[in-house]
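Morning. Coffee machine broken again, so started the prediction first thing and wrote up yesterday's gels while waiting. Chain of 317 residues, entered below exactly as on the submission form.
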Amino acid sequence: MDLEVHQIAIPNPYFESPTNVFCIHNAHSPPVLIDTGIGTPESLSLLRHELSQHGCSLKDIAAILLTHKHVDHSGLARALQEESGAAVYVHSDDWADVACFEERHEKVSQLYLEAMRRWGVPEEIILAVGNLRARFAQLSRSVPTAQKISDGQILRCGDWEVYVLHTPGHTQGSACFLLGEKLFSGDHLLPTYTANVGATDVTTKGHLEKFLGSLQKILALPNVASLEIYPGHGQPWTDPRPRIKKILKHHRERAERIVQILSDGQTLTAFEIAQKLFGRLKDYHVLLGAGEVYAHLEVLESQGYVRRVESYRFAIA
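Came back before lunch.
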C-alpha cells in the first residue's frame, strides 16, 4: 500500500505521556490524521511545525479520525477543522462528548464526582480532583459537525479504505482503525502500560468485560500476526498477540490480588482497595485507581467472588 505514516508526539501537561498523532498521506491523497493531541496553543504550534517537516500543512488535512473522546486525543479537533475544513469522525458512543464538549463539561464533571462517591473517595479528595478537572475545560472545544461512525464501517479517505473496529473498554466509544495491516489502536492497546479501564467513562457499566472482549476481537482478526500497531502513546510494534496475552494476564492477577486483599475479612471501598494496590493516590490518579478497582469489583461480584455489604463497600463472598 502506497502511503506514508508519520508519528508526531504531542506533549501535554496533565496525562501520562505524549499523545501520538499519526499523519497518513501519499503523493495522490491529502493527509489524514489519527487523533489530534491536546487542545493547547503549544500543541497546535508543534503540530503545525511537524506537519510542515513532512511536506504537509494544516489546511491540507482532509479528515480527522478520533480513536476516542479524551481531550489528549481530541482536543485540537475543532481548531484543525476550522483551519482545514476536514471532516471529523468519532464513534457514536463517544460522539456527544466530542460534539458537545463545552455544553456537557459541567454535567460530565458532576458525573465524575458522583462516581467517586460510589467508589468511597473521601469528600476532601473529591473536591481536589474536581478542581483539577475544572482546568480541563480549556483543553478542548465542541465539534458540532463531528460525524458518527460505527463498528464495521468503512471510511473512504483519499485512496484508502479505513475499517472501523469498535473496541469499548477504555471508553464506551473507543475505536481502532485498520488500514491494510496497520492498526491504529488509540489507548485500547498500548506497548508498555495498560490503559485505564473503568474510571474515564462513568456513564456506562461493565467496562472491564468490554475491554477484555475488545482485546479478543483484535486477536480474532485474520491477519493478526502481521499487524503493525500504531498506539496512542509509545512506539509502534508488530504482532499484538504477545502484548494482549500479557494484558490479559495482568488483569487476571489484579482480580486475584483484590480477592486476596478482601480475604482477611475486611469490608472495603474501591478507593480503600486501590490504596492497598497502588499506595497513596493523588490528583487524577485517585480517579484512575479507584475506578479501575471498581470495574474489577463489578466482575468479581457477578462471578460470586465478592459481595456488596453496603452500597459502596465490598467483602469476600
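The two ends are 54 Å apart (CA to CA). Going to sketch it on the whiteboard this afternoon.
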